[in-house]
Amino acid sequence: MLSTIVAFILLLGVLMFFHELGHYLAARRSGIEVEEFGVWGFPPRLVKLFTYDGTIFSINAIPLGAFVRMKGEDAADMSPGSFNAASAGARAFTLIAGPAMNLLLAVLFSVAGMMSGVPADVARPQVDAVPPGGVAAQVGVEPGDILLRAAGEPVYVAAATGDFLRLAELGEGDATGPSSGVEVIRKGTRITLAEAQDVTPQALLAETSYTPVLTTQITFVVEETPAAAAGLLPGDMVYAVNGERVTPERTLSDLVQEHLGETVTLTVLRGDEWMQVDVLARENPPPGQGAMGVGISGVVRLVSLPLGEAIWEGVAQITTYIYSVLALPVML
After folding, report:
1. Cα 136 off chain centre by
2. What does the pLDDT look like over 80-94, one tens digit per residue?
3. Strand 118-129 vs strand 67-70: parallel, antiparallel, or unpaired?
4. Which of 177, 148, 154, 180 is nearest to 167 (CA)?
5. Ranges of each domain in the chain
6. Of residues 83, 57, 88, 54, the one with CA closest to residue 71
7. Is 20 a catalytic residue?
8. Which fold has domain 216-298?
9. Strands 55-62 and 34-40, how do they pair?
């Protein structure tokens, strides 16, 4: 309980500091004199930190925010440099600057969060074509190869778009592998292309055409179902159904639905082992079990977005949040 109270006071103090900093900077820019900037808390004053350009910076006794005291905040003072003597535009600018600073802070926090790590559905790229003479061809990448690592870095792409994604945190299995060269799965076997040295994931992906694969994993298996009888396990990653790859465009559910009432052959990756598993796709399964009796999900990793994309996503996230808040009264 005490830690929650302390955390609330600290967070409120930070938010209010930047809010009042916006007022302070806008006031000075508009020629309004600021008599005191309480960077922490409300009066009575505990400590006078320093005086800068006529403004006292202080720490105060009531730790519930911060404040800026401008000259002439009461309507009676119309002397030069007072708030009320400033133009209407300057006063509006000064008042708006506080909320605007909080908005900017929210965007910065959101962008920092996107860069430090955000959950994303990921996939492995399987090479469809290799142009002759390029880097991929020179290091020995072949059509059909599933790229795993390059220059010691795991190779993941966004399941939906195929864009390269850099992991913010290594998951199980991501930390193991060669520190140099290109590691691929070729015809079911992990191999490292010895001639590849410092080829980056981006360089490989930039010049090859590929399809995101291994996008779907089994999360649970219902007892006494075809999946349980076939030996499927949570964590199994489904690569193909009857030889057709599972992709964002052709999902596992789509492929299984086309063969209801039939036994389908799943190509499954379990750890480093490839398996062929025959499973009955039931036509009328019990509610909530699905045709085979499994739960599935995308493969989620914590990824770090590059600066440009992080800014775009951060602004979009805050904009969506603001819209949701503004729309709430209408929805009620």
Report:
1. 29
2. 888 888 889 999 999
3. unpaired
4. 154
5. 2-116, 118-212, 216-298
6. 83
7. yes
8. Pdz3 Domain (2.30.42)
9. parallel
Per-residue pLDDT tens over the stretch 36-83:
999 999 999 999 999 999 999 999 999 888 999 998 877 677 888 888
Helix (H) or strand (E) holding 204: helix 201-207
Query: H or E element: which one contains 56?
Result: strand 55-62
pLDDT in tens, 147-157: 998 888 899 99
Return the number of other C-beta atoms located less than 10 Å from residue 56's C-beta.
16
Amino acid at 192: T
Higher pLDDT, 3 or 98: 98
Predicted pLDDT of residue 264: 95
CA distances in angstroms from 88 to 10, 65, 78, 83, listed in the order given: 34, 27, 13, 10
Residue 331's contacts (CB-CB under 8 Å, 6 or more residues apart) are none
Q: Which amino acid is at 157?
A: V
What's the CA gap between 315 and 155, in Å, rounded? 27
Element (DSSP H or E) covering residue 228: helix 226-230
Q: Are the beta carbons of 63 and 14 closer than 8 angstroms?
A: no
Is the sign of the CA dihedral 21, 27, 29, 31 positive or negative? negative
CB atoms within 10 A of CB 195: 11
DSSP strand E in 253-321: where?
263-270, 273-280, 294-304
Angle between helices 307-331 and 88-116 (to 10 degrees): 120
- Out of 20, 33, 36, 183, pick the active-site residue: 20
